[in-house]
Amino acid sequence: MQSIDFDEVERRALARRDEAGLHAEDVVPDIVEVIERLRIPVAISPFGPDGPDGLYVQEGDDRLIVLNSGKYLPRFRFTAAHELGHATYEDHPHLDVDIHAGTSHAEKRANAFAASFLLPRRALKLRFPNRTHIDPNFALNLAAEFGVSYPALIYRLHNVGLISGTARNVLLEAPAALAMEKLRGRPGNEVRLPAEFVRRAQTAYDQYEITFQRFSELLRRDKDDLAAAVRDSGILHPEDLPRAS
Ligand SMILES: [Zn+2]
User: Fold this and answer.
1) Is the alpha carbon torsion for 21, 25, 30, 31 positive or negative?
2) Among 150, 149, 201, 203, which residue's Cα sits nearest to residue 175?
3) To the nearest whole percent, how much of the chain has pLDDT over 90?
4) DSSP-derived 3-state class of residue 94
């Protein structure tokens, strides 16, 4: 079977992120909204925790991604990115009962795409303080920040060369992995912005790196509502203060 060209997949994933207005070091916020920015409609339905992960439909120029909101959030997000991979490579329409069970080239490529899309190499390298040792709690926090499962993060750290195979195996056995299971109870359609993401957006706005319009987009807020909500906080530049009505 043809092998996966991981560098090519990474480039395609970064190009998609760029198209959606996400920098290579950003966390993907609401992935459904991000995919819809790419003009691919997404339908979400509760098929239950044991139901299929998702579905990719293509008919002529029309495309559709269907996701199961009954899955826990990291799985839901990984599936969404996997289906975006199918759309990016214009794969055949496909029902994904279990995204990790597929053995075909297209399925493996879609998973590689999902890992690159949610966890770009550059984003991980930026956050990686020490290449010789990684603490399970640090990895757990990193997984939570990126909205991926703990094992998905560990495998990815190894695949991009940031940890050894031995370190990967030790981390996969770590108690932190068990702690992650507690988070599986979260409803699959919930989307929450990571605190660090909000903090970085605010810093970028504060330092005039992004406009208030862009800041409000990053926070998924209507610009005027956000301006009204934080008008007395002192974080707004004078020119962005809402005018008194
Ligand atoms: Zn698939």
Assistant:
1) positive
2) 150
3) 42
4) strand
pLDDT digits (tens, 9 = 90+) for 146-175: 999 888 999 999 999 999 999 999 888 876
Distance (angstroms) between ligand 1 centre and the Cα of 194 equals 27
Tell me how far CA of residue 26 lies from CA of 14, 18, 39, 126, in angstroms.
Answer: 11, 11, 20, 11
User: Does the structure show a pLDDT above 50 at 184?
Assistant: no
Lowest pLDDT segment from 104-118, 170-184, 213-227: 170-184
Domain ranges of the chain: 6-117, 122-185, 195-240
Residue type, 128: F
The mean of the pLDDT values for the chain is: 85
User: Which residues, including other chains, have CB under 8 Å from residue 17's CB and lie 6 or more apart?
Assistant: 23, 24, 26, 28, 117, 120
Architecture of the domain spanning 6-117: Orthogonal Bundle (1.10)
Q: Which amino acid is at 170?
A: V
The Cα 80–Cα 55 span in angstroms is 9
Distance in Å, CA 213 to ligand 1 centroid: 35
Which protein residues have their CB within 5 A of the ion that is ligand 1? 96, 107, 110
